[in-house]
Predict the 3D structure of the following.
Amino acid sequence: MSSDRAFKRSGFGLAIFAVGFIAILGGTAWLTGQGYSGEHPALRVLGAGLLLGSIWLLARTAGRWAGYFCAACALAAVKAALALIFGVTVSSGHLVSNYRIVTELFITLIVVCALTIRFTFREPRSRLEELSLIGGMVGLALDILTEPNFWPLRVAVLLLAISWIVDRLTNRTRSRHRQHTAPQGVELH
């Protein structure tokens, strides 16, 4: 949530982001039965617990890691742009990239960056913003697991867009209220 103190980045916030994202990715893979583990029922239960636990941890600490999500999406967009330019991936053994899929991913990641750049300058102000960030992380993890399908990332874009619109409407209402309640001769910033 928002506070009056200066918004600071910390190594702890980056660690929470990295571990949380890996936990979401691993928990989702085990829950859906993807990866090397197969479809063992115990791993599905473990995956569900890991996914729910990481979502809980990320929800409790969203103010610490929120700005790193935009940076991670920007790095992924740069990798997609390089795959578009060179026609092969920059990692994964230089696989030939599908132009349509990579273009779609690039555009979607740019939109995610545009919707989350505000969190590089300030903490999330509401639970909706925190939940939309977590939805973005889950969407990105699901997108990695179901690569040709971009519906999880599109749902994340929808959640982020809704939180952005609500934030804009709420801020507009707050600024109008402050203008009407200011004492004569005092200018509010």
Notes: DSSP finds six helices and no strands in the chain. Residues 1-7 have pLDDT under 50 and may be disordered. The chain has one domain: 11-176.
